[in-house]
Design brief:
Helix content is 29%, strand content 15%. The chain contains six helices and nine strands. The radius of gyration is 16 Å and the shape is globular.
């Protein structure tokens, strides 16, 4: 593939620590892994793609999900956080205070030139088109989804993410970053999934076929 295809380490959560997760991801043919910020890269079987800082952004190469819209003064909190961490990527999602193309632009107009981690499943969940945000992305996570559902299997006919269109837009934008597959089993957050590893492998296989790799 033109862009390295890695995986977010939470896909392999059931394997144990990040060292075991990276080993499993390497065995599955991924090019990099996205763990928590602060992970020692020398312990891993794969290089680090884009680490995650959670729950607050850190002024470094990392990504943090926008805070939940349910938090008190969530918008003000997010503005304060990213003003203090301008190098951190913002990840919008459907339940967050930044949850649409419009709120992305409103947030950037208030905070400054914040760059994004664009997750195609999250964008599909709020009913958006990820291609509208890819020109602002420094990292992209791939999964199938639809309005009201962040993660679907790549072969689910109800899925609305057009990965061919995503690749074309990345090409048009001359995107220089990496791609990562993400699925997770987080029932406490409303995202249960029986086999995130298999879904990640299936999506990766489909994407590589699509890209002619």
């Amino acid at each position: 593939m033109r862009w390295p295809l890695g995986v977010v380490d939470i896909v392999y959560e059931r394997r144990g620590d990040v060292v075991a997760r990276a080993r499993a991801a390497s065995d599955d043919g991924f090019a990099h892994i996205d763990p928590l910020l602060g992970t020692d890269p020398s312990t891993l079987a794969l290089p680090i793609g884009c680490p995650t800082a959670f729950p607050k952004p850190v002024d470094a190469w990392c990504a943090t999900p926008a805070p939940s819209a349910q938090l008190d003064r969530a918008w003000e909190r997010a503005v304060r956080w990213w003003r203090g961490a301008p190098r951190a990527l913002l990840e919008p999602w459907a339940g967050a205070v930044v949850c649409s193309t419009e709120t992305v632009h409103a947030f950037r107009s208030e905070v400054g030139d914040v760059r994004l981690l664009v997750d195609t499943g999250h964008v599909a969940d709020w009913g958006g088109d990820p291609c509208e945000l890819l020109h602002l992305a420094d990292h992209v996570q791939l999964r199938q989804g639809k309005r009201g559902q962040t993660q679907l299997h790549v072969d689910d006919p109800s899925g609305v993410v057009d990965f061919d269109a995503v690749f074309r837009e990345l090409d048009r934008c001359d995107y220089r970053g990496k791609l990562s597959v993400e699925y997770f089993d987080l029932p406490g957050n409303g995202w249960p999934l029986d086999d995130p590893e298999q879904w990640a492998r299936d999506l990766a296989r489909s994407l590589r076929t699509m890209a002619g790799a």
